[in-house]
TrEMBL record:
Protein name in the entry: Formamidopyrimidine-DNA glycosylase
EC numbers on record: 3.2.2.23, 4.2.99.18
Record's catalysed reaction(s): 2'-deoxyribonucleotide-(2'-deoxyribose 5'-phosphate)-2'-deoxyribonucleotide-DNA = a 3'-end 2'-deoxyribonucleotide-(2,3-dehydro-2,3-deoxyribose 5'-phosphate)-DNA + a 5'-end 5'-phospho-2'-deoxyribonucleoside-DNA + H(+); Hydrolysis of DNA containing ring-opened 7-methylguanine residues, releasing 2,6-diamino-4-hydroxy-5-(N-methyl)formamidopyrimidine
Domain of life: Bacteria
Quaternary structure annotation from Swiss-Prot or TrEMBL: Monomer.
Protein's job: Involved in base excision repair of DNA damaged by oxidation or by mutagenic agents. Acts as DNA glycosylase that recognizes and removes damaged bases. Has a preference for oxidized purines, such as 7,8-dihydro-8-oxoguanine (8-oxoG). Has AP (apurinic/apyrimidinic) lyase activity and introduces nicks in the DNA strand. Cleaves the DNA backbone by beta-delta elimination to generate a single-strand break at the site of the removed base with both 3'- and 5'-phosphates.
Cofactor(s) for this UniProt protein: Zn(2+)
Keywords for the protein's UniProt record, in alphabetical order: DNA damage, DNA repair, DNA-binding, Glycosidase, Hydrolase, Lyase, Metal-binding, Multifunctional enzyme, Zinc, Zinc-finger
The keyword tRNA-binding is annotated on this UniProt entry: no
Cofactor binding, per record: Binds 1 zinc ion per subunit.
Annotated family: Belongs to the FPG family.
DNA sequence: AGCCTGCCCTGCGAGC
DNA sequence: TGCTCGCAGGGCAGGC
């Protein structure tokens, strides 16, 4: 799924169509995503105005005029596509996705004219929810979620202190959204490589100089990935169909056996918490 | 509490 | 060619 940079790319792609738009109609074709859609999902959305489109970690959040916010998560395989806008052919993005997996359709009267925003998700690990806008921080999705890594709320000393309290491997700690929001398997691996920190090391032993390097590396890799439009693996594309190109800049992720760009030693793959970790055993300590 | 495993679901590529 | 297996960007519940 999309991790923070991919979700941010999706947010930027959708915002011109969604922000300020009136929701004319919602078609919930399948209610069984990761969780069932909330009751009266379509009815609660119809007629509302979308005030903004924000991101929190890997979630998209759209505050509505009706006092609720639409909370969306793309899971592993979720994607949005948009029809409409000002393209001569009237089709801003021709979805390459299998229409059998178009689960939710939003028909909008937007600033750029009518638009149709379609949520497609083959694996259905994504979710949509409606929560009161006044209590977003307390809703089940965001309560306890760690700071946004690219905001001022992500403080190196606090990050170090959180690592100090953890015995688990640092890789697992980075995937824990309570410590820092938005990091997934790709950017955990990439940040650890940039910081020269072994993914196998206990988080508490990273606190200190390594922790500071990791803090910087996380911010750097996320910024660069957003600038590149995210990483396009398998099925990820921005809502305009453009492919991100950060995958060409991976130093270790999905590069088992290839040469480490720093020291030329072969990149290793191990399994931690049931997920692949890629790293260089020579320059990550 | 922290930590780990299994599981939700579909699709795709590798290997036979 | 057609099959089976393993694996995939996430996060939750349930076990210890």
């Amino acid at each position: 799924m999309p991790e923070l940079p991919e979700v941010e790319t999706v947010r930027r792609g959708l915002a011109p169509f969604m922000v300020g738009a009136r929701i004319r109609r919602v078609e919930a074709r399948r209610a069984d995503l990761r969780f069932p859609l909330p009751r009266d999902f379509a009815a609660r959305l119809q007629g509302a105005r979308i005030e903004a489109l924000d991101r929190r970690g890997k979630y998209l959040v759209a505050p509505l005029s009706a006092g609720e916010s639409l909370v969306m998560h793309l899971g592993m395989s979720g994607r949005f596509t948009v029809d409409g806008g000002d393209r001569p052919d009237g089709r801003y993005y021709a979805a390459g996705a299998d229409p059998r997996h178009d689960h939710v359709v939003f028909e909008l009267d937007g600033p750029a004219g009518p638009a149709r925003v379609v949520y497609n998700d083959p694996r259905r690990f994504g979710l949509m929810d409606l929560v009161p806008s006044g209590g977003l921080d307390r809703c089940r999705h965001f309560a306890g979620m760690g700071p946004e890594p690219l905001s001022d709320a992500f403080v190196a000393e606090t990050f170090n202190a959180a690592l100090k309290a953890r015995a688990a491997p640092i890789k697992a700690a980075l995937l824990d959204q309570r410590i820092v929001a938005g990091i997934g398997n790709i950017y955990a691996c990439e940040a650890l490589h940039r910081a020269g920190v072994s993914p196998r090391r206990a988080a508490r032993s990273v606190a200190g100089a390594r922790g500071m390097r990791l803090w910087s590396a996380l911010r750097a890799v996320l910024r660069e990935a957003i600038e590149a439009g995210g990483s396009s693996l398998r099925d990820f594309a921005a809502s305009d169909g453009a492919l991100g190109y950060f995958q060409h800049r991976f130093r270790v992720y999905d590069r088992e056996g290839a040469a480490c760009p720093v020291c030329r030693a072969p990149v290793r793959r191990i399994v931690q918490s049931g997920r692949s970790t890629f790293y260089c055993g020579a320059c990550q300590r």
